[in-house]
Structure formats: C-alpha cells, structure tokens
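Notes taken during the Thursday session

The instructor put the following on the board and asked us to keep it in front of us for the whole hour. The protein is Glycogen debranching enzyme GlgX. We were told not to look anything up and to reason only from what is written here. First, the residues (311 in total):
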Amino acid sequence: MLVWPGNPYPLGATFDGGGTNFAVFSEIAERVELCLFDDDGRETRVDLPEREALVWHGYLPRVVPGQRYGYRVHGPYDPSRGLRCNPSKLLLDPYAKAIDGDYRWDQALFAYGFDDPDSRNDDDSAPFTPRSVVINPYFDWGNDRPLRKPFHQTVIYEAHVKGMTIQHPGIPEDVRGTYSGLAHPVMIKHLQRVGVTAVELMPVHQFVHDNGGANYWGYNTIGFFAPHNGYSSFGCRGGQVQEFKAMVKTLHQAGIEVILDVVYNHTAEGNHLGPTLSFKGIDNPAYYRLVDEDKRYYYDTTGTGNSLNVR
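Then, after some discussion, the predicted structure tokens were revealed:
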C-alpha cells in the first residue's frame, strides 16, 4: 500500500479530496501501526512512516471517507511507571470525527489479566472494538453563523437527544431519538412556542456503555470529536457528522442556538483496572494525571477513575 510522509497537523484523519492524512500524538511510542478495515472486517496494517514533534503521521492516497481505521501502538509496557502500550489492543483515534460500532465487553479489551493487574494480556481486542472513521469534512453551511443572542435574553432548554423525541407521536418513527428528530419541524415549533432561544444538549460526544448496563446520560466519553453514533439515523460511517451539522443549521435557521454539555475531565477508560480503548494505550502519562508516588494509579478528582492531564 502506498504511503507518503504526510503532515503532523492537523491531528486525526484529514481527507483532502485525493487521500487522507493520519496524525496521532505519542511521546512514548516506538512504532505506530495504522490499521485499515474493509467492509468484511479484514485488517491491513501500515506503519506511520514519520515522527515529527512527537506526532506520528503518514498520508495514504485514495483512502476516502467511510474508511474505518484504528491504531496499534508499540512501546513500553510497565504499569509501575505508568506506561501501558500494548499493540494487541486496537485503539480509537483520540481525534476521530466519527466512530462506527460499539464495544462488546471481553477480557481482550483489558491490557492485563484479571487474575493479576500487573500482568500483560496480549489477546487481540479488535474483534470487540468499534472503529474510527474517515469523514467527508465538506458541508454546505450556507450563510449560517453563530447567533450570539445576549445572555440576558437567552432562554435555555436542557435536552437529551434521544429522550426528547423517542416517543413523540408527531415525529416519524425512523428519526425519533436522533439528531434529525430534534430538528424536526414539530419539535422546532414546540421550542418556539414555549419561548426557547437555545437548546443545551446533554452529552453528544461518543460515549461508552458499561458492561452489563446502559449509560443513558452519556457522561462517559471516549470520542471527544465524534457525535454519538447511537443518535444517528444517517448511519455510522460519517453520516452522523452530516446529520449533526444539519441539525445545528436547522435550529439556527429557526433562531435557536445549540449549547453542548461537555465532559472534558475524564474518559471511559477508568482507573488502573479499566480497559485500554484509546488514550491509555497511546500515551498514558501524557493524557492522564498519574499519582506521583506510584504511577500505576490514576489521580482521580472526579470519582470516575481518572482525570485528564490538562495542566
């Protein structure tokens, strides 16, 4: 497969009309494999050829929107030093704009054996993980602009994308509980009638459902740049991005601003006993705050298992 050097910026997968540039940050990685998946699930691995300013990158001609991918990061695995690289774990791109699929909980998602937290588990996690997706970045925003209504004139309606419309009899069943459902004329008319000027959406970043349960509110983020695929009626191979943008544009046209409830303090990877899904396997000490006295453990200010390193 043809691979060119590409560029270290922007991070993530960036389609330019002829191919896609891939860039991922990792200070501790010794090698990064880009894993491409075809429609039958077959995996092709390509080494990212360049490393510049701690960013691994490469450009693949003819890789187009809809392509599913992930990363395998080779590097040190020493939990006592906070190092958790394990190339048997397929990792989501932290900068993925779309994610296809969900997790099927299995011990392979964990970098250690359940009988010994300090051991190393080399079971391949790919059969149990979702995939990052290359998206089409182009969208016709027309003359859409932020409305910037003064705060003293703003009336905010906190809303859950699914809960807002999932049982609404006036909205077609095929778009209930989705971004399209929230932007349906029936819903917009209701919001305008009650005087709402802005909807504040409960988390719409891609989030993880815990093993054996459903996370309804969504405060368990794994993809900070990806609209949650469970709220899409357009599909999960980039359609959720187009649908989300269309929702925002439609609400703006109705004079309604969109505010996002965001969760930037932690991720769904949990503590030292949590799974290795993305950040933890790419560069654990860069992405997370670790306990200085024993970097095996995570500094947890949120009660959720970890705290992002934003210092």
